[in-house]
Design brief:
The chain is mostly beta strands. The chain has one domain. Helices cover 5% and strands 31% of the residues. It contains one helix and ten strands, in the order E-E-E-E-E-H-E-E-E-E-E. The strands form three sheets. Strands 3, 4, 8, 9 and 10 form a five-stranded antiparallel sheet that branches. A three-stranded antiparallel sheet has the order 5-6-7, with no helix packed on it. Strand 6 and strand 7 form a beta hairpin.
Length: 126
């Protein structure tokens, strides 16, 4: 979040304002299985083949020219506790790609995490 720091030199008071922007066209994107990925995408996700993983158990989605594994997004509320930040209350999960930005996901049917009905993706930044 962008912290705009205003300092009143006479009183040395600090005021912080946080601004979060979320961008999404809210179109449903296809969830993909391993066999639906291109050879290049499979090479980029070669970790799937390590540790005796079955690649057919992983789902992915394409967003902004990249491929994302669905397993990189933690379900909320999680079994370990915790919840989504207030700014993300309309979304099901997120993955940070920096301190200030990341990817948000939500399912058309929020109770259906094992679906083939697609996914809605957004991008947040501050």
């Amino acid at each position: 979040m962008i912290d705009q720091l205003l300092i009143n030199s006479a009183e040395n008071i600090r005021i912080k304002e946080k601004i979060m922007k979320i961008i999404s066209n809210h179109h449903v994107r296809d969830l993909l299985w391993w066999y639906e990925l291109t050879d290049q995408e499979k090479n980029d996700q070669d970790w799937v083949l390590s540790n005796d993983n079955d690649p057919d158990e992983f789902q992915f989605f394409r967003y902004k020219g990249s491929i994302y594994p669905l397993c990189d997004f933690l379900r909320y509320p999680s079994v370990w506790g915790g919840s989504l930040p207030d700014d993300f209350k309309d979304w099901d999960s997120y993955m940070s790609d920096s301190f200030f930005s990341g990817i948000l996901i939500k399912f058309p049917d929020p109770d259906d995490w094992d679906n083939d009905n697609g996914i809605i993706v957004g991008w947040y930044y501050s």
